[in-house]
Specification:
The structure is a single chain. The chain has 147 residues and is mostly beta strands. The chain contains two helices and eleven strands; from the N terminus they run βββαββββββββα. The strands form two sheets. Strands 1, 2, 3, 4, 5, 6, 9, 10 and 11 form a nine-stranded mixed β-sheet that branches. Strands 7-8 form a two-stranded antiparallel sheet. A hairpin with a 2-residue loop joins strand 2 and strand 3. The longest helix has 12 residues. It is globular, with a radius of gyration of 14 Å.
């Protein structure tokens, strides 16, 4: 087990697997998270989460300073139910420099854990669907969390 550390990213959990969402300010991280939550994802954190390695897996938890709050542009900070912990299955970066296609996911090391790292073009009207497909196709498999 490692000491928890703060990481600048949002995180949602889909079918037991966490998706870290990174990108520059204004890239659409919170909008993507909100669209995924609307489709049934759970909310872990917005803009900052706590990461910790437990039994070889990277776990994302809500940051204590922003727990249960999501910034929705134009509305401000909105209370949101949270998921207390999610095993991270992959890192999703939003960038206009995203490749058109990949043959395999590059690997990103976070907290001594290797994770698939997908970069998607943020301006897609179906970005939430692409994120779900990326999780299905490239995400690490789920495993139940120990209580």
């Amino acid at each position: 087990m490692s000491a928890p550390f703060a990481h600048q990213a949002g995180c949602v959990v889909i079918e037991g697997r966490g998706v870290l969402i990174e990108g520059a300010p204004g890239a659409g991280k919170s909008s993507l998270a909100l669209a995924l939550i609307d489709r049934g994802a759970g909310f872990v954190g917005d803009d900052s989460v706590m990461l910790e390695v437990v039994d070889g897996r990277l776990l994302a938890r809500p940051h204590p300073n922003t727990r249960g709050l999501m910034e929705i542009r134009g509305l401000g900070l909105v209370p949101m139910p949270v998921v207390d912990a999610a095993p991270v299955a992959f890192v999703l970066s939003l960038s206009r420099d995203a490749p058109r296609y990949i043959e395999q996911a590059p690997i990103r090391r976070l907290g001594a854990v290797d994770l698939p790292h997908i970069t998607l073009w943020p301006d897609s009207p179906v970005l939430h669907l692409r994120a779900e497909w990326a999780l299905r196709h490239y995400g690490l498999p789920s495993a139940p969390l120990e209580k």
